[in-house]
């Protein structure tokens, strides 16, 4: 299940986060899984090899089968994160829990910057890390280990699959820029991350959607579509609140490759 | 508008609030931890910052809990702990905690979590063995309780990321600040 | 005749500082300084009422009735007070204040640009509050 995917990866991308092969789906207990690659989507870069993990005294030895786990009470314990069946993505937390966490992410980053451009960049970086992992997770779970290789395919994957999983709905619109061939826009009347946020007037056009722009860039870049992605408020006639548009400007190489594909 | 009612059950509460996919939450938390590791470098500093961030969240989140759960003032710390375990964890994270290991004075107890949405996908690498990955949760408890006049110390005693069989945090009530009245300069 | 059940709304922090004030047509009597002073006085009176209580556990004044207005006050367990000056006999104000408390937890406390205990300047809080008050007025009209 893992080998074919590797072959699909564009040679330009050597990011350590691209390890689709390492995800263990664990659909059925006891299913044989390939543990040869390190975990790619641990949020803190767990990048050791399985053999080194075996050396560590503290943990029980690596189990080769998902079905075998060391259980105490109801709590399940796995020798390592790859033994754990991949979640189906049906678990939920309250929107509030996310909103408070996101608010704290923004507040923390405000203390780390001198200006708004830097704040945007840092939120985008945080989002990028999420996007890179979301790509791995969803290609594996939702797409049967296949990844989009064409521009419109990956855009529609973001607009529908990624949006649905992360924000519970398909994005309101996906459009091609009218002035520039390399620009695309994903728009949302009310971005989930902005639901409770009022940006003070003195921060100008700053949009916390920079985090979502980062997610989009993380997905695109790790799928081999480098792009500059930014978030903008766009006023809508007759509405008190502007919508947010995520503007995607693809790198030249992406468009050239598309042209070659025909 | 419906009349004011008594406290809801944990399940009813979680069912009544708007929810999102836990993966968005988990991955966003992962992104925060990663940023802190990059910014602060020292694992100990990251632990402190996570606790501080949790505290900040707690001081804000407590009002939402009070507003939406309809709980009234708790009579003592024991009741407070039960409310947090059964309603608080459920309302925000969709999981329940068990309250155990009370001391004789009834001022310290443990919250045991079997499910913890923060840690999906996580494994501590060798360089981060000292990381208290879930410190944000203990911070939230401390911050929230402080807003209702209870000073606490919250520490982790078991952590599945470190090979334990559950997540357990110890909550110790250190001081119950009495209500502050202006124009009262005695006691 | 004013349709508003509410003449004005105050939110004060746990130290008695006014963090939000909105006038809904109380004959334009209170300027900023007045409202700040009123908030602080109300905070003290509320505390005094707790001390006056003959039995322990008093939570302070919930309702103050005058011949031409009612003042309804809701205090959260964290010490933030929401109070509204209303028409005499205005109904369901407790519920309305609780709804406003919920709006506060959503659009103020979850806003990363809001600093705790400071004056509330959150566009979304204003918008949602206006809607709730509007709805309340429509309900009244339909009566």
From TrEMBL, chain A:
InterPro entries: NO_sig/Golgi_transp_ligand-bd, TRAPP-I_su5, TRAPP_component. CDD domains: TRAPPC5_Trs31. Its main location: endoplasmic reticulum. Residues 1-66 are annotated as: Disordered. Residues 8-19 have a biased composition (Polar residues). Keywords: Endoplasmic reticulum, ER-Golgi transport, Golgi apparatus, Transport. GO terms for biological process: endoplasmic reticulum to Golgi vesicle-mediated transport. GO terms for cellular component: endoplasmic reticulum; TRAPPI protein complex; TRAPPII protein complex; TRAPPIII protein complex. It is found in: Endoplasmic reticulum; Golgi apparatus. Transmembrane segments: none annotated. Belongs to the TRAPP small subunits family. BET3 subfamily. This is Trafficking protein particle complex subunit. It comes from Oryza glumipatula.
TrEMBL record, chain B:
GO terms for biological process: endoplasmic reticulum to Golgi vesicle-mediated transport; intra-Golgi vesicle-mediated transport. The keyword Transport applies. Keywords: Endoplasmic reticulum, ER-Golgi transport, Golgi apparatus, Transport. One of its GO terms (cellular component) is TRAPP complex. It is found in: Endoplasmic reticulum; Golgi apparatus, cis-Golgi network. SUPFAM superfamilies: Ligand-binding domain in the NO signalling and Golgi transport. Gene3D superfamilies: Trafficking protein particle complex subunit 3. InterPro entries: Bet3, NO_sig/Golgi_transp_ligand-bd, TRAPP_component. The keyword Secreted does not apply. Homodimer. Belongs to the TRAPP small subunits family. BET3 subfamily. May play a role in vesicular transport from endoplasmic reticulum to Golgi. This is Trafficking protein particle complex subunit.
Automatic annotation (TrEMBL), chain C:
It is found in: Endoplasmic reticulum; Golgi apparatus, cis-Golgi network; Golgi apparatus. It comes from the Eukaryota. Gene3D superfamilies: 3.30.450.70. SUPFAM superfamilies: SNARE-like. Pfam families: Sybindin (PF04099). Signal peptide: none annotated. GO terms for biological process: endoplasmic reticulum to Golgi vesicle-mediated transport. Its main location: endoplasmic reticulum. Keywords: Endoplasmic reticulum, ER-Golgi transport, Golgi apparatus, Transport. SMART domains: Sybindin (SM01399). One of its GO terms (cellular component) is TRAPP complex. Part of the multisubunit transport protein particle (TRAPP) complex. PANTHER family: TRAFFICKING PROTEIN PARTICLE COMPLEX SUBUNIT, TRAFFICKING PROTEIN PARTICLE COMPLEX SUBUNIT 4. Belongs to the TRAPP small subunits family. TRAPPC4 subfamily. This is Trafficking protein particle complex subunit.
